[in-house]
From TrEMBL:
Its main location: cytoplasm. It is found in: Cytoplasm. Substrate binds at W49, Y142, K272, G305, R389. One of its GO terms (molecular function) is pyridoxal phosphate binding. The gene is bioA. Keywords: Aminotransferase, Biotin biosynthesis, Coiled coil, Cytoplasm, Pyridoxal phosphate, S-adenosyl-L-methionine, Transferase. Residues 182-209 form a coiled coil. Homodimer. Its cofactor is pyridoxal 5'-phosphate. This is Adenosylmethionine-8-amino-7-oxononanoate aminotransferase. Pathway: Cofactor biosynthesis; biotin biosynthesis; 7,8-diaminononanoate from 8-amino-7-oxononanoate (SAM route): step 1/1. GO terms for biological process: biotin biosynthetic process. Pfam families: Aminotran_3 (PF00202).
Amino acid sequence: MDLDFDRNHIWHPYSSLIDPPPVYPVERAEGVRIYLEDGRGLIDGMSSWWSALHGYNVPELNSAMQAQMEKMSHVMFGGLTHEPAIELCRKLVAITPAPLQRVFLADSGSVSVEVAIKMALQYWQSQGRGEKCKLLALRNGYHGDTFGAMATCDPVTGMHHLFAGQLTQHFFAPAPQPKFGEACADEDIAELRQLIEQHHNELAAVIQEPIVQGAGGMRFYSAEYLRRVRELCDEHELLLIADEIATGFGRSGELFACEHAGICPDILTLGKALTGGTMTLAAALCTDKVADGICRGEAGVFMHGPTFMGNPLACAVASASIDLLLHGPWQQRVAAIESHMRQALAPLQDSAAVADVRSLGAIGVVEMREPVNMMQVQEALIERGVWLRPFGKLVYTMPPYVISEQDLGQLTTAMVDVLGAL
Ligand SMILES: *Cc1c(COP(=O)(O)O)cnc(C)c1O
């Protein structure tokens, strides 16, 4: 592959084009492995950023795409509809909490967050309460890279403080302190409560990642905290937006992380694993109350409509991915990954360079005391046949659910060897 051309002309995520770090040329991917051009196979501990639940080159997903391709890859969604969209939305309505009945299909996670925010703003505008246009988000949160989404990411430790002057100023509560499995005391939610009590007349919605804060810190927090946020939203007339783009489809041990708390948001965003890691697709679901509120307002319609909305190929493969997930023993697989990681990563707890080791569902996190040298750690892991992408102090893994005990062992052993030596 012409890596010089790549270096000189192609942006990668969060990359520089002046002396960029090496990127590894990938030839193909199969099962849980990514194969480099030189033939080396790497166990993908990232599931290509939370998405490849079933691993790669999955026959069921390939044939769903092939069959759909023979009929049509795409048609516009304005004034037209098709079976792949109807089938997918029927499934999404069936498997998400019951009050979520209305589905908006979007192109990527960030866009679905934009859509969710717009839904919340348009809902209050339609009620004659346009002053309710701010959001309350959590510190350590991450909701995407587009402007509306950026404005809800952690304003200090997030990746977007350069744009602070151009972003809508929202309200931020401290990151939840009680951990997953712990109770939530009054003082744990006091600041968030105070912000809501003071500002509910300006607030359209609370937006948060339920249970697992992903890219903004890989933190697992108390289900009771989430329940109390839901109660506060109800008490003070705020919508609750749950961003399950990372957690959706079983990653945290429940099909959707909201289920840990037994709550239902007013708006839910999905992405990443929606198509099993094959194509870009996302969705924002909302309740009848939100949809009716929007459509009875001045505009009479929801003001959004992407060119590639409801792409049939993506919908067809998303449907196949959901079927494959639900017809397989995903809960046992995720539970087995969780218990393996608990045991296998535990020795790192005694390492002086390690601040914390934690796992939930099929997510394992090693938080170091200092930011790691990403290239150095990545190279050492590659030598051990493993692909991870550390971020700051966080070295984490969320492997495909189908990973074998042996491959999982190779993955966690590599983490323990490499991180234990730092
Ligand atoms: C990845 C992610 C997004 C953004 O999705 P993209 O597809 O990268 O635009 C938004 N919210 C959460 C919680 C995410 O993990």
